[in-house]
Amino acid sequence: MTRQNYVFTSESVSEGHPDKVCDRISDAVLDYLLSEDQNARVACETFATTGLVVIGGEIGLPERDGREGSERLKDVMGRIGQIARDCIKDIGYEQDKFHWNTCHVLNFLHEQSVDIAQGVVGGEAGRDEGAGDQGIMFGYAVDETPELMPAPILYSHAILRRLAEARKSGELAMLGPDAKSQLSIRYADGKPVEVMQLVVSHQHLDASLTSADVQALVRPYVEEVLPEGWINGGTEWHVNPTGKFLIGGPDGDAGLTGRKIIVDTYGGAAPHGGGAFSGKDPTKVDRSAAYAARYLAKNVVAAGLAKRCTLQISYAIGVARPLSIYVDTHGTGVVPDDVIEKAVSQAMDLTPRGIREHLGLNRPIYARTAAYGHFGRAPEADGGFAWERTDLAEVLKKAV
Q1: 45 part of the active site
Q2: pTM for the model
Q3: pLDDT single digits (tens) 134-171
């Protein structure tokens, strides 16, 4: 029997966190290349520290209009540095030692390995496009929130996103871009009911502000996004518990793409396959299959087939079809789990090409995913967060 009464904790970090600055730059490079060619191949990594951003990895553009991919890449390389600066500027960094206009940007991107490309590019002798790497990917959904996400990670994101909006609008101009949040939420009878411990560490630009001052500034925004009654007399607040937080971002701590994979997904409430998302084009199943797994798990719960669903998919590099599909409804399913496994495998083509076409992933929709979670967001008109749709629910109902 699953525990029904417990306290569970998840954390989030803001767009100004050093690792998230790097995720944003990597995904902005990806978006730029996909806007140049929807078949671009990108594996972009970013490192940031005091006064320095280093971008590296593999990229590839197909031949077009009689020009080889290597020739086309020369044209786009000159834009990479400005993309990084634009990201840093939008996030809000104008610190002496990390400023969008004065930091050094080094670009070491190069052409994609031919060994990887030969396994991914399809069409030869009728062979379908293979997965960009081996690996396991997990999707998860639970009915404890309207977004079908675990409450601790969902609301940890919501707190920081709302504070970022207030900072950028000028309401909280005294705050800086770097921040973290953490919620310890008590569950009763399997449902989240109150916040027991709340942590917000937020960079501030005014050296005279105390921890109590910062708490007074952020508290109304925290209370705004949390469900009524979750903050009460029993909630313990920890705001800037170490004291002042003046030095933020890569000047305070180095950042790297792909180091916040639990923040990006389910806050520890579900398994993670280990692969990061940012900077990777959708031929890479680390990203696209994780999106597909969330999409399927969410639709299982939306269809009323389970209150909670974990779904695993596995792949081998160069092989199109998934090696396995596993479903666990944690004892909440209205039909056996193997029946749901069969239904999801029939409802969606889970080859890399099938995923990309079903969810419309070959477009520049990724920079917006780099902060505040890849899941639990509303689907957008231009195809952003398409994996959050529940349009497969009726199909799954009929299938079982």
Answers
A1: yes
A2: 0.95
A3: 899 999 999 999 999 999 999 999 999 999 999 999 99
Helices and strands (DSSP H and E) totals, the chain: 11, 13
Residues 6+ apart with CB under 8 A from 299: 347, 390, 391, 392, 393, 395, 396
Strand order in the sheet with 324-328: 135-142, 308-315, 324-328
Task: Find the DSSP H helices in 134-194.
Answer: 151-169
Nearest-angstrom CA–CA distance, 110 and 113: 9
Backbone angles phi, psi at 135, to 5 degrees: 150, 175
Using the structure block, give the residue that is written with the tokens 């109150």: 194
Q: What is the pLDDT of residues 207-249, one digit of tens each?
A: 999 999 999 999 999 999 999 999 999 999 999 999 999 999 9
Residue spans of alpha helices (H) in 189-333: 211-225, 261-264, 285-302
58 is known as an active-site residue: yes
Instruction: Indicate which residue of 20, 41, 167, 202 is catalytic.
Output: 20
Active site residue 284: yes
Q: Which of 86, 253, 341, 349 is catalytic?
A: 253
